[in-house]
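Work Package 4 report. The design task specified in the project plan requires that, given a folded chain encoded as structure tokens, an amino acid be chosen for each position. We show below one input record used in the internal validation round.
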């Protein structure tokens, strides 16, 4: 079976958030759009649907209500200190970074608000940084959780695309896998590929790759919004940079397997320049999902700062590698230890207040906008999904005594664990809590975090001894490396036009979202500030949609 050529103003390859945003802008301009997506209709919205829905905003009303004083200048300092731009290829990424900062400090919130997006009133403080004002990290809380989490971010754009389908402006083709960008006289004029067999697979679950036909489509412009490489561990290892040590033998997947990076090579074959492929963002706090949707399905713990972090042998991580501070710094250090995992040691008191799980499905109160369920976050007990992982998760050890905890950790260890060293670290930390001051910088950071109203209210437990029976039971969590985001990708200008090796635009070709490193081929540089991945899809998708609409 072969589909005839269909003409439209734009073809969008990938029905994730960036593609939906670009399509929405084109619909608003009255343009005809064809969206092609290899996955079944159940996966409309892509990775964004699974996310916690955190968005980076600057000097927002939510920040001001929580007593946070933010500014564009402070955010720029944090972004540039984190990005560490240092390459010739960073020309467009730097321009994208400035444009995105202006967007996050300007119309981003109002634009989303007009579409019905609302935010949880307490702003989170993610990626707290390296400990130096001009270095990596967020100086202030900027992580705005969407009311409705990832599905709440995706919803207005899905709705607009569905309206476009109803009005005849949009053709939405699921199970259409693009295998080639058609180039004629140096211009991308369309796509061709395979029609895959219908598949009832649920969102995120593996789907069939059985080919039942072919298709070819033409358009004035083609936009690649197909995501990154996080679901393809072979590509992740091939791109792994020497500065992060050796790639792990074992990793969990924070994204479905269809996030496979296929369109990057296909775009390169059509003339696109790929840059900064060695820049990537993977988490070190991954746990095995006890109820997986895809293979090696991992969930990230979004930790507060109080858990004691140990490497696989039981050695404490160095300053300032505390939970929630420096993702890639921690990854780099852990790759020197020779093991693919590490440990959190904590108490029930800490897990109740400080453990959040990344993902829309792990936060039913916020995702479903359930106020009754949400109210339990400030009461006793851990959130239900956290307790479910504590009870059923393969990576959790729960014990009433230190000896029982150490024995449980030994059972889960793949390399020798120095139990005496673990006990020593716990006891040394606990002695520091006999005073309200300490030389231990993690304890100082905990006390500093509680100066922020939001952290004191729902995010950071009051300092206490790990061996205090009233704070128990004791808990240890085995943490795995979790693949997530590509920080490099297809080089583009500020309109999202794809650039070739000589810096010239590839006529007719655009890119947005993670496929373009969230803009320009690497807007984050080496490190991200969190809340900037969904935001990068929103901004780059909007830029591309508006640029194509202008012609």
């Amino acid at each position: 079976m072969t589909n005839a050529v269909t003409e439209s103003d734009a073809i969008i390859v990938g029905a994730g958030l960036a593609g939906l945003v670009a399509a929405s802008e084109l619909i608003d301009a009255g343009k005809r759009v064809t969206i092609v997506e290899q996955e079944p209709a159940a996966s409309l919205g892509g990775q964004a649907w699974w996310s916690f829905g955190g968005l980076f905003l600057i000097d927002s009303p939510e920040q001001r209500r929580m007593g946070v004083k933010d500014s564009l200048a402070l955010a720029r300092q944090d972004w540039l200190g984190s990005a560490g731009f240092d390459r010739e290829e960073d020309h467009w990424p730097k321009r994208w970074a400035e444009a995105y900062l202006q967007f996050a400090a300007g119309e981003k919130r109002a634009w989303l608000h007009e579409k019905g997006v609302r935010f949880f009133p307490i702003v989170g403080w993610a990626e707290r940084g390296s400990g130096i004002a001009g270095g990596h990290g967020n100086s202030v809380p900027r992580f705005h959780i969407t009311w409705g989490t990832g599905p709440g971010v995706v919803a207005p754009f899905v709705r607009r695309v569905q309206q476009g389908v109803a009005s005849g402006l949009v053709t939405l083709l699921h199970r259409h896998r693009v295998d080639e960008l058609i180039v004629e006289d140096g211009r991308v004029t369309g796509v061709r590929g395979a029609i895959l067999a219908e598949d009832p697979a649920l969102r995120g679950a593996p789907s069939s790759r059985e080919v039942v036909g072919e298709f070819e489509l033409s358009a004035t412009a083609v936009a690649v919004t197909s995501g990154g490489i996080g679901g393809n561990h072979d590509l992740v290892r091939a791109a792994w940079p020497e500065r992060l040590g050796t790639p792990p033998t074992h990793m969990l997947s924070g994204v479905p397997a269809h996030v496979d990076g296929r369109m990057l090579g296909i775009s390169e074959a059509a003339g696109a320049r790929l840059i900064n492929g060695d820049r990537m963002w993977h988490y070190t706090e991954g746990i095995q999902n006890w109820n997986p949707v895809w293979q090696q399905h991992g969930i990230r713990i979004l930790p507060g700062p109080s858990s004691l972090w140990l490497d696989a042998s039981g050695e404490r991580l160095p300053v300032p590698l505390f939970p929630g501070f420096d993702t890639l710094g921690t990854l780099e250090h852990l790759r020197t230890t020779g093991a693919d995992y590490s440990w959190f040691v904590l108490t029930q008191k800490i897990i109740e207040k400080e453990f959040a799980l990344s993902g829309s499905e792990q936060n039913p109160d916020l995702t479903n906008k359930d106020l009754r369920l949400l109210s339990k976050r400030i009461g006793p007990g851990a959130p239900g999904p956290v307790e479910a992982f504590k009870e059923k998760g393969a990576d959790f050890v729960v014990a009433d005594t230190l000896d029982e905890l150490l024995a449980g950790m030994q059972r889960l260890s793949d390399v020798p664990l120095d139990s005496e060293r673990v006990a020593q670290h716990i006891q040394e930390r606990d002695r520091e809590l006999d005073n309200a001051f300490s030389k231990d910088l993690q304890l100082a950071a905990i006390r500093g975090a509680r100066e922020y109203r939001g952290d004191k209210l729902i995010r950071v437990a009051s300092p206490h001894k790990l061996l205090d029976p009233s704070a128990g039971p004791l808990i240890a969590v085995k943490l795995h490396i979790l693949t997530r985001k590509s920080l490099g990708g297809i080089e583009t200008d500020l309109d999202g036009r794809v650039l070739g090796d000589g810096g010239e635009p590839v006529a007719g070709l655009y890119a947005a979202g993670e496929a373009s490193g969230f803009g320009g081929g690497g807007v984050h540089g080496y490190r991200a500030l969190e809340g900037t991945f969904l935001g990068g899809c929103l901004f780059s998708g909007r830029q591309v949609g508006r640029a194509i609409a202008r012609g």
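The chain has 18 helices and 20 strands. Validation will be extended to a larger panel in the next phase.
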